[in-house]
Amino acid sequence: MKRLYTISLLVLCLVATGCSDWLNVAPSNQVNEEDMFSTGDGYRHALNGVYLDLGTSTLYGQNLSWGFLDIIAQYYSASAFKEERVYYQSLKFNFEHTNVKSVISSIWSRSYNNIANCNNLINQVSNADPSLFAQRELEKNMIHGEALALRAFIHFEILRMFAPAMMKDDQKAYIPYVDVYPTYVPSYETNENVLKKVVADLKEAKRMLAQCDIAEEHKAWMSTNSRMLGTNIPRGDISEEDVFFAFRGYRMNYYAITAILARVYFWMGEYELAYNEAKEVLDATDDEGKKCFSFVSYTELGSNMKDYNGIIMCFFNKTLQENYEPFTMKSSEDKLYLVNFEKGEKEADQRLLESMIGSEGTNKYSRKYMIPLGTNGTDMIPGIRLSEMYYIMGEYFARTNKFTEAGAMLDEVRYERGIRETSLKTTITTLDGYHTEMLEDMRKEFVGEGQLFFQYKRLDKKPVKNAIFVFEKPQNEDV
């Protein structure tokens, strides 16, 4: 059994610029662990290194967003892929193909490497003197809480891929929940045990972040401008040059943890608990009493294609446009041409119009990741957003036979996307009916975000007959 991946002390040589200076890290020279954690900046660098790695193409910069996960969710046309290449084989669920195995293996190993980095950081920060940090106890709690939340989040993501959904749970042990550092022989655990630990870590992280993000003096951090664009931040005692406390939407902020808890409870089948967490996000207000999370006006969706007004947490990748755009070109060997994307809507759904959907001849592709460098939103990979909270609340209502309220939740999302005449609150009369409408709306809402596959899996609704919902653990690695 191979030992768990230990922290890489080569700090990532990705230096953010411009709107995301909060991600600035140390130079790429080798750093001694003792030296790294001798100053507060070292803790910042270690935390930012995890965020940066999650945004790379191996994880949320491609495979777990617009790449592998959306391919197996059947967003794209098989005819636009070359048969011998990994994307065609993935679309056909040929998970025995060498290159597909390599993708799945890299997701597993990179995820657990980031968990190891989180565990090392948690060990170090929990014993650190608050005087090391520029903002003392506030900053120590923030770093500790974010690392806990990241550890829980990554484990949950691995579980969603490498274990059955709860309705298919067979009580077998599928993944280890690694919460010590270093670990050499981790114990594999059941769905139930892993989820208990995920929830416990998220609850503790939420408690710690409450002291930061929702304290009265910091509520402005959660406004859209502050959270996503890093502007209009009341500093108080924090230096203007210190951007570590800006751009909370790129981080595991208090409401991101709340929203992820809602997602976890939803996966567990704890629908009322999921509803309560989702409603807390919907009801969140900033220092001016305005909603922290809202939908951009449907008339402005073309200039804000990711609707960062409603992003609760996103990942960062500076080269998103550069990485994605080749997959929309006719000359590319693999093209991400959409299929079954416009069915069922005759209304002016802005998600289906030219502002959001590009054309190459008769073929269509999403423009969500074609925002030019230097434009607001260009580096954002949505991780969890406001609309998901509406879907969660709607399903809770549908499962309690409150179909008018369930339909109203979907109507709200659809209305905000430009469907001004929508009446699902009067037409949905069954849980299956709710799921049909919800999945159809999710397909448009989550294109490029890697979320639709998990909804098919949760509900056991295969997008194609040969769909595989449980990835096999790589044979060459135990963690």
UniProtKB/TrEMBL annotation:
Major location (coarse): membrane
Residues of the SusD-like N-terminal domain: 90-211
Keywords, in A-Z order: Cell outer membrane, Membrane, Signal
Top-rank taxon, per record: Bacteria
Cell compartment(s), UniProt: Cell outer membrane
Extent of the signal sequence: 1-18
Domain RagB/SusD: 375-460
Any Pfam family hit: SusD-like_3
Similarity section: Belongs to the SusD family.
Protein name: SusD-like N-terminal domain-containing protein
